[in-house]
Specification:
single chain; 246 residues; alpha+beta; Fumarylacetoacetate hydrolase, domain 2; 8-stranded mixed sheet; 5-stranded mixed sheet; 13 strands; 23% helix; Hydratase-Decarb/MhpD_sf; lyase; Hydratase
């Protein structure tokens, strides 16, 4: 980490936006490396409180994670505050931990720690004004742009491995959105969870019972385009959200 970069100052700037200040054009200076970006994440979570994580790829390539505030996790059909005009939505699966998971956990221990898997939305709205122009490490410092998680129903057959597509259907303002679904197996999620146990402990944010972990978009990100409702269904599980107007 460069001595010229101050993660606490970057975190204060992001926290101001969490508190309703205008979005930032970027972090000045930007984080010089992943360690610096993680230092910003830690400082933000110290202020807001943890309890959630997201799997992410830095620059679409290298596996990393975003530490997210637990207060950003809400239940299905919640009325959410206004979002920026460029906000996006993803349909995801969310792992809910039924036990603490320490560093060094095996894949078997990680699988055993999962209490349930729920259909979920992730909202994407960075504290940075134009995610198309900022550097990947700036988005990483900002929790990869996550703006909240909406937890839906438990997927009834998740223990069977979730191999192949789930058959997700998505509606925005009751308009069916026809988009392809990315398939991901439970085994892939478990592999990430075992890695995350070590990463989270190294960040002094160990995985705990009740933590929520989203494991990558199955649909999206898709622009909300001002939609006031969203709902999705996969088999016997559903998730929905309502969005307040500006």
């Amino acid at each position: 980490m460069s001595a010229a970069f101050d993660p606490e100052a970057a975190a204060r700037a992001l926290l101001a936006v969490h508190g309703a200040a205008p979005r930032l054009p970027g972090l000045v200076p930007p984080p010089p490396d992943p360690d610096a970006a993680y230092a910003v994440q830690r400082a933000v979570i110290r202020a807001l409180g943890g309890g959630a994580w997201k799997m992410a790829l830095l620059a679409g390539r290298d596996r990393h994670a975003g530490a997210l505030p637990g207060r950003g996790v809400v239940r299905s059909d919640a009325l959410l505050p206004p979002l920026p005009a460029d906000a996006c939505i993803e349909v995801e699966t969310a792992l809910i931990l039924g036990a603490d998971l320490p560093a060094g956990a095996t894949a078997a221990a990680a699988a055993d720690a999962i209490a349930e898997v729920r259909l979920a939305f992730e909202l994407v709205a960075p504290r940075l004004a134009d995610r198309g122009t900022v550097l990947p490490l700036e988005l990483m410092a900002d929790g990869f742009g996550s703006a909240g998680i909406v937890l839906g129903d438990v997927l009834p057959d998740w223990r069977d491995g979730m191999t192949g597509p789930l058959g997700i259907a998505l509606w925005l303002d009751e308009r069916r959105v026809a988009v392809p679904e990315t398939a991901a197996s439970l085994a892939e999620a478990v592999d990430f969870l075992a890695w995350l146990a070590g990463h989270a402990a190294a960040q002094d944010l160990p995985l705990c019972q009740g933590d929520v972990i989203i494991t990558g978009a199955r649909i999206g990100p898709l622009p909300l385009d001002g939609a006031r409702t969203a709902r999705a269904r996969a088999g016997g599980a559903a998730v929905s959200a309502r969005f307040a107007g500006p």
